[in-house]
From TrEMBL:
Pfam families found in the cross-reference section: Rv2525c_GlyHyd-like
Xref: InterPro entries: GH, Rv2525c-like_Glyco_Hydro-like
UniProt name for this protein: DUF1906 domain-containing protein
Organism, as annotated: Streptomyces griseoluteus
SUPFAM superfamilies: (Trans)glycosidases
Rv2525c-like glycoside hydrolase-like domain residues: 2-206
């Protein structure tokens, strides 16, 4: 992290929890968070919570129409506990990661929105800010275009891999939506890059949204 602090990147996303998190994160500790924060890094906490019932990929946790609301609250409480344990204070944003699904499946989409609303409401009740990561073709679109905005996240991180480093030029929805520093854009993935002698594969995002508050 110290070697990569060259000026181009200023923040890194960290998967703090969720039953669908892809792998264990043994190096993600409060000490690590404190160290990289002192180096000037900002951190973006991500929670991979329950996924849509109509999603085709296998996941350890999927919501149903019946349990979406209760599961959203449970998962949000867990996300707050994990963020707090890492030294990420109230006022921090926590981003819920929702992978692609068929938004034309009304029952499935309704379940997702119920889960997201419950997750968001619970985060806010504990003084954390609600963010959401999703795809412009599905999960982000569902939130951005929902008619009922009640308890939906106030910060949207949209995945659109068009290699445009912007949060405005390719914004596909209402230009008045998610303004006031509430947007992020994942514009490139699987980019093999070297900084300070260390080569890794990274995803790039343009960022104009809240992050974790540390220290």
């Amino acid at each position: 992290m110290k070697a990569w602090r060259t000026g181009f990147y200023g923040a890194a996303a960290v998967y703090i929890g969720g039953k669908n998190r892809g792998c264990a994160q043994p190096n993600l500790t409060a000490s690590w968070v404190k160290t990289v924060n002192s180096q000037g890094w900002k951190l973006v906490p991500l929670c991979v919570g329950a996924q849509p019932p109509c999603q085709k990929s296998a996941n350890p946790e999927k919501m149903t129409a019946t349990d979406a609301t209760s599961l959203g609250a449970t998962d949000a409480k867990d996300a707050v506990a994990k963020a707090s344990a890492l030294g990420m204070k109230p006022g921090s944003a926590i981003y819920l990661d929702m992978e692609p699904y068929d938004t034309t499946d009304k029952a499935c989409n309704n379940a997702v929105l119920s889960y997201v609303r419950s997750f968001t409401k619970t985060l806010r009740g504990k003084a954390y800010r609600a963010g959401y990561y999703g795809f412009t073709s599905s999960s982000a679109k569902a939130v951005a275009t929902a008619t009922d905005k009640t308890d939906l996240p106030g910060n949207l991180w949209y995945a659109l891999w068009d290699q445009q480093n912007t949060t405005t030029a390719d914004w596909p929805w209402d230009p008045k939506a998610f303004t006031n520093h509430s947007r992020a854009h994942q514009y490139m993935v699987n980019s093999k890059e070297s900084r300070g002698g260390y080569t890794i594969m990274v995803d790039r995002s343009a960022w104009d949204a809240p992050v974790a508050i540390v220290g």
